[in-house]
Amino acid sequence: MAMQLDEAKALVKRVEALFMPWNVDALADGFTEDCIVRFGNVPEFRGREAVRAFFKMRSARQKNYRLTKQLRSLAGDTITNICDGAWADAQSGAPMKGFGVGVWLLRHGKIAVWEAAFNLGRAVQTASITDALR
Description:
This protein has 134 residues and is an alpha+beta fold.
């Protein structure tokens, strides 16, 4: 039986909550054992343990991470969502921000494929279209 809209909204909000504070194990447990991840310019990786390592690395770099996720669409077992994030870079202390779009292909209620684009930069930096296309 396909996921219903209210279930999809709840899943997106549940995932959002797992980032604040970082709950790496619960995030990883939301993926299938054989999942595939394509995240921005990070080389494709596979498997729940690789997802766990990815989130562990991110949590070490993104201090005081604040995230807002919104469901954009549900079609069968595919969810699309957008996210806005803000954090302090752990190495430099610089305030950072990001915006992303993600697609989750679900299998038995877990993410089997996660494809995402995520743009980030310093929070105090104002970017123009010209800057983005350099």
